[in-house]
Amino acid sequence: MTVSLPQFLQAHRDEMLAEWLAEWSSSSAVGLAATSSTAQTRHVMQTLFDEILSQLMVAPQDPPPGLDEHAPLCKHLRHLAAEQARHPEVATDPMRMMFSLRHLLLRHVSTWIREAGTTPVAEHLVQVNRYFDQIALFVFNNIINLRDRHISEQSLSLMELSTPVLRLWHRILLLPLVGIIDTGRARQVTDHLLEAIARHEARVTVIDLTGVPIIDTSVAQHIMKTIDAARLLGSRVVLTGISPEGAQTLTKLGIRFGDVICRATLRAGIAEALLIIGKRITAMEDQAR
Amino acid sequence: MRIPILRLDRILLVSIQEDLTDDEAMQFQSDLVNRVAEVEALGVAVDITALDVVDSYMARVINDTASMVRLLGAEVVICGIQPFVAMTLIEMGRDLIGADCAFNLEQGLEMLRARIVHRGDTRFTGDEDD
């Protein structure tokens, strides 16, 4: 007598699940099995298994129905992806878990086909494959999204770190720019600087570009805006640390910094700033050297 | 031919003798900016006494070079523009040469020195460590 595929799968459910769990825990000495507690992983796997199995119980459709975003299955897959994102060293684990289940299911469906001898046989295999393709894509998408979110959070915190406005001397501020300057950062830098100029009533601001690797049109425009804004508040700006390559690029792009004071080194820039406020650094004459 | 860059303490002297091709101009500019950065030059005098004709391209090359040098924190003076050249430049357009100009090299150097004296980084009194 022949049994239908759902009946067959139902009958072998416990056997398959045990097989999958055994295969997984023996194959992964490290990874998800090690990072999260084993009981928890077992629970997740069991739920996933039941969800996937119940999807396969329905008759094959062409094209197969898409994954329902709000189904419990997707919730579990998302959890799996999140788990993975916290442990980047086992990046392939969720996929490996899914693929091992697919392998297992394909094996059992093949057995069923052999026993039942029904035709067409390919339909069921194709359905299992397609279904797992969808799952793989879903998990992959989730991992990428989580990663992206991590990266943008990190760049945000990096931005906070990298825009200090230093009080160099009475009425002299120093703004050392380090790293890539994009629109968002430029605006933040300008905000910080203007606020500091107003607070300290700075007469001179030294902007040091030694740490800016690439100076292009947009960077130059951002810097120009910052300088103009500082000027409006009544602070002179001294620009230091432009590299020879930077100078050539800026000129070839047709960008003119006009009457901004430029100095080769931060040291020369500080000297200029001191001159503007009428101070100078001299040797201590009464001190034996 | 590479244009020689002469050094007079922390002032650099260059003399352009003939029209430059694109490649020569690029080479000249990168040589000069690198030299300015290397010796931390305070001033650059560009002498063009030998040029009888300055077209808009050469004017732009000279202008660009001056802007580059200024971005690196050095003063620039263009020396020795011939009367005829000055006339054609004015006829071509007002701001073709944006940098300051001097009659000859001697006056150019004087001008540079006068300006350098008023800079902050040359006003220290012998207590510098280098």
Annotate the secondary structure layout.
The complex is a heterodimer of chains A (289) and B (130).
Chain A: H1 5-11, H2 13-27, H3 32-35, H4 38-57, H5 72-86, H6 93-116, H7 122-161, E1 166-169, E2 172-178, H8 183-200, E3 204-211, H9 217-232, E4 236-240, H10 244-252, E5 261-263, H11 266-276
Parallel strand pairs in A: 2-3, 3-4, 4-5
Antiparallel strand pairs in A: 1-2
Helix pairs in contact in A: 2-6, 4-5, 5-7, 6-7, 8-9
Chain B: E1 5-8, E2 11-15, H1 22-39, E3 43-47, H2 56-71, E4 75-79, H3 83-92, E5 100-102, H4 105-117
Helix pairs in contact in B: 1-2
Task: Report on the architecture of this protein.
- The complex is a heterodimer of chains A (289) and B (130).
- Helix content of chain A is 62%, strand content 9%.
- Chain A has 289 residues and is of the alpha/beta class.
- The mean pLDDT of chain A is 80.
- Chain B is of the alpha/beta class and 130 residues long.
- Chain B has a single domain (5-115), classed as Transcription Regulator spoIIAA, CATH 3.30.750.24.
- Chain B is 44% helix and 17% strand.
- Chain B has 4 helices and 5 strands; from the N terminus they run E-E-H-E-H-E-H-E-H.
- The longest helix of chain B is centred in the first third of the chain and has 18 residues, at 22-39.
- The radius of gyration of chain B is 15 Å and the shape is globular.
- Classes of the chains: A alpha/beta (289), B alpha/beta (130).
